[in-house]
UniProtKB/TrEMBL annotation:
Keywords: Membrane, Transmembrane, Transmembrane helix
Entry keyword annotation includes Transferase: no
This protein's name: YtxH domain-containing protein
Transmembrane segments: 12-28
């Protein structure tokens, strides 16, 4: 699964869980006072959920950044090798060609 899809899935999972909890509490057969207490506890937990999500997203972003840098370094190394091979092939090709008499 791609990084973007993972983040979307995680965010959707948390939002869906929170929404399902609120709806379940609102339609549950409890007294209003008890339901308000449960809702208050749930609301108090939201900052912790947001912090956990933020930490997870930051970790994934750092991981993606590290992977991107590794891929970039690998690409630069391959490009350097290709340029060196191209220069060597060009030198070899020019050394095989006889000198142009009109150029002398």
């Amino acid at each position: 699964m791609s990084q973007h899809n993972s983040d979307n899935f995680l965010g959707g999972l948390i939002a869906g869980t929170a929404l399902g909890t609120v709806i379940g509490l609102l339609i549950a057969p409890r007294s209003g006072k008890h339901t308000r207490k449960v809702l208050q506890k749930s609301a108090d937990a939201v900052p912790d959920l947001i912090e956990d999500l933020s930490t997870s997203v930051q970790f994934q972003a750092d991981k993606l950044s590290h992977t991107t840098l590794q891929n970039w370094d690998s690409t630069l190394d391959r490009l350097k090798d290709a340029l060196i091979a191209g220069q060597a092939a060009t030198r070899a090709e020019f050394s095989k060609t006889p000198a142009d008499p009109q150029r002398d």
